[in-house]
Amino acid sequence: MYGATVEPIEDIRTDEEKLAEFEGRIARGEKIEPGDWMPDEYRRQLIRMISQHAHSEVVGMLPEGAFITRAPNLRRKLILIAKVQDEAGHGQYLYHAAETLGATREEMLDALLSGKAKYSSIFNYPTLSWADMGAIGWLVDGAAILNQTMLAKCSYGPYARAMVRICAEENFHRRQGQDIVITLALGTPEQKAMMQDSINRWWWPTLMMFGPHDTDSPNSAVLIRWGIKTKTNDELRQTFVDQTAPELMALGLTIPDPDLYYDETNGHWHFGEINWDEFWNVVKGNGPCNAERMAARRQAHEDGLWVREAMVAYAEKHQS
Amino acid sequence: MSDTHASDTQWPRYMVLHQEREDKPHQHAGTVHASDAEMALLNARDVFVRRPDCVSLWVVRADLIFARTQEELALNPDWLDNIQATSDRTEAYYVFAKLTQKAQFSHIGEVEAENPPHALKMALQKYPKTQGLVWWVFPVKVVLKSTPDDIAAMFSPAATKDFRDQANFHALSVLRKLMRDQKQEAE
Amino acid sequence: MNAELKQALIDYLLAMADDELILGHRNSEWCGHAPILEEDIAFANIALDEIGHAIVWYELAADLSREERDIFANRMVYFRGAPDYRNTQMVELPKGDWAFTMLRQYLFDQFEMVRLEKLAQSSYAPLAEAAAKIRTEEIYHLRHTQAWVRRLGLGTDESHRRMQTALNELMRYYEQLFSPSLADTLLFQANMVPFQTELMVHTLELIVPFLVEANLIPPRGSNFVGPNDVIYRHEHTEHLNDLLSNLQQVARLDPMAKW
Prior knowledge:
By secondary structure, chain A is mostly helical. Chain A is built from 12 helices and 2 strands.
């Protein structure tokens, strides 16, 4: 994991002893670091989660990247390029965290491009107007922050640390999204209509980002026991609605949910049922942009092949 | 895309060691994939110096770092004892250690040694008070470093990109005021 | 400063700004499509810097025109048509493959370095100060693109072939960067800007040996033929129309709206 070692040193504890010690550390809130013993299942779950997260950041560059060239003023253009650049950076940190667990970037990329690995379904929706840059920043990144803030307490050190770093940058992303939404909502009638249309399209997919109901989430139990996950899907989803709905409504925007209302009895915003057919359909790969996103990533990868090979060839010829 | 070229790689990994201020030690910031050290240094600057302060950046190919954990050393005390110097042909090695669970690897100092295990032995002798959970040693000569001249060209510009500054998003104060006004109206 | 000189300086600044803006725009098209993740990050930085530099030049022109900086810069970018843009044709060409992009970037970066060094001595203080500051960012750009050009030139047969093809294409456009305009003469006489021919000589002295070392041979007889073949900066390829219709699409929905 850390590179040049001479010969492995024998660890003579039994698997049971190691597991007990491992779970003890987690219970005490200690971080597990690269090189520490860990159950295979823990390693496997983490590689899956972290690489999926990394893939999401990388694929997530595409929907917003499509609007960089059309950003309507210079400041927005700079901010959007910086945001997309940050996403690439997040992907980079996350691939690194997965590498500390023994995954290689070649394997992870292969899994993504062959369709074996998943990435966040939210990026399988198209960006159709400039207002979508606002919706993605406020809603999608807002949802991501809730998720990531929870993951920053994750028991695996490199992932927790990556989350802290990413959350700090993600706050800038949400701010810029809010700034766009507010500007349009309080702008011309056409701008407000553009923003409303955007909210109508992104609201439900954002709620779907938090995943299935807790009762339908098979991995949750072990993830919680091993300190990988500390809050449930439904808890996070509720927090998101409570935070976001009133602010959007204050701007004169409506939420496309006829069942949405504030429940005085528990202080939460009650919301309608998610269209689970759509959810599972998109997860399975039939969302509006799944094919397009993967095609773009494959194209970039293929187009880059001669470049990667050339750089390696140069390095081999010029080894000092 | 499962039939990738055997020669198509994502390039080797380089550890990036970052020094925030002159009076602080270099610390492990992360890794970059690069085809050689020069590209690694340039990419490290782009990946890790977009916001934070930096006066120096080092990159070292990951597979050239020799690592041992405190646990591994404790489980096999004979291993260290069996390392002996055999000649005078030594070179300088950097020593980094991870001091606590939460901390990143941090630059401890330098030793002269014949080979990586010897360097680790020398480091443990030279820095007996340092409680490293994990130790790294690697030859000074395999590190590519930014120079002091690079500060102006490579690092300082990040500070001027203030469009990331959250204080520049005025619309938010508009929203807060709106919500306050609406709340007042309701009351 | 008399009116004629002032206008000449505004035009000069706009030309520099337009070059940076269009090139930065082309570079930003790579976001999410670069050959490796580290380059998505690195190249986005270059795009950000260039657009940032464009803004610096637009703002200096705004000051001279006694207009508000933000309004002026955005009007220049979003509400001029192709015939009013003053960038060179080289920067408006589509991004091509990675070889084309890197080589174009290198050729532009080296030219800019040479020019900025001279501009840092300008008798017009705001220009000298801005040039000095921008030059420090350009040092890094040049280092980055030189590293790439060298490696792709010497890498594999394929990378070499692509680079040589790119060079053959780009050299046809390169000389336009050195074409002087009438306004330049006035500015040169006032010690505000360098003499274009001097820039050309100095730039070629730097790029030719560098390219040759990277096994890239500048095509013979193609370049720098003389003032009769000058392509004026208001003459553009059809690529600029396509670029601008995309760039300006959202802003032009409503010129009065704030975004």
